[in-house]
Amino acid sequence: MGSLFQLFLSGFCVGMIYTVIGLGFVVIYKSSRIINFAHGQIVALGALILAYLLRDVGLPIWLGGPLALLIMAGCGAVIEYLAVRPMAGQPLVAIIVMTIGLAALLDGLMPSFFGGVERSYPHVFPPGGIRVGGVSISYEHGISLVMSCIMVLLFGYFFFRTRVGLKMRAVADGHQTARSCGIKAGSVFRLSWIIAALTGTIGGYLLGSLESVSPAMSSVGLRVFPVVNLAGLESISGCLIAGPVVGVTQALAAWYLDPVIGGGAKELVTYLLILFTITLFPYGIFGEERIERI
Questions:
Q1: Where does residue 116 rank: exposed (0-12), middle (13-18), buried (19+ CB within 10 A)?
Q2: pTM for the whole structure
Q3: Structural domains in the chain?
Q4: What is the distance between the alpha carbons of residues 100 and 37, in angstroms, rounded to a whole number?
């Protein structure tokens, strides 16, 4: 029973990190109706830049972290300006294909700049952990859980309680209506890509502190996509619930099914979750169902 609680706890911590990363999917889709299939590559890029600053350059976390966020904010703005803005007015399928091409481009560039070797972050969290009864949690998992919760709360406050968040929600409800109210939709699009890059970098750091960092980390996009798919591409609160659900499911699958099928159960469960959600809940469990009348 203790090992089962241990799996739930570790899966919950990883699932909250999935929630932070999934917010990047949500904010871009809510503002522009674009499903960004390059978000996993953006997460990996931010994590690699931070690892380079901390490990190779030797900057402390209090300096390297803000610098990496600043660099990734610039990358998000550049991507929006060079790749997204020229696609304005194009069919949605063409824009989605553009994000797939962007993912392939980043997959090719990251090994050239950072190499294909796995990296680890310098130890910032203290070693050891907390043990309660038969369940223990490392300081890395615990601090990552706390930071993930803080990020979700800050994001929710920004999106629902600030003037800029109100503009983003207005653009999400209708681009033309928002423009008629004097809101610059282009600025909102750019801001959404910057926010996605920032949340992706923070989520990449939290995940990299538990695992490792390499260009192959871009596969986290496929691991997180079931979260936003299950929650609904427009639901921030849904991500808060779906993230831990996916994290715990993957942890249980890896523990109980890997010895039976020889490995890969986590990836298998991920794709089954996507198939299950799309089949039974096309708009996600917490998503907004849109009805188009002819």
A1: exposed
A2: 0.89
A3: 8-125+135-280 (1.10.3470)
A4: 6
pLDDT digits (tens, 9 = 90+) for 247-283: 888 888 888 888 888 777 888 888 888 888 788 777 7
* pLDDT band at 134; cut points 50, 70, 90: low
Determine the Cα–Cα distance for residues 63 and 84; give it in Å rounded to an integer. 31
- What is the pLDDT at residue 71? 96
- Supply the pLDDT for residue 6: 80
Has residue 87 got a pLDDT over 70?
A: yes
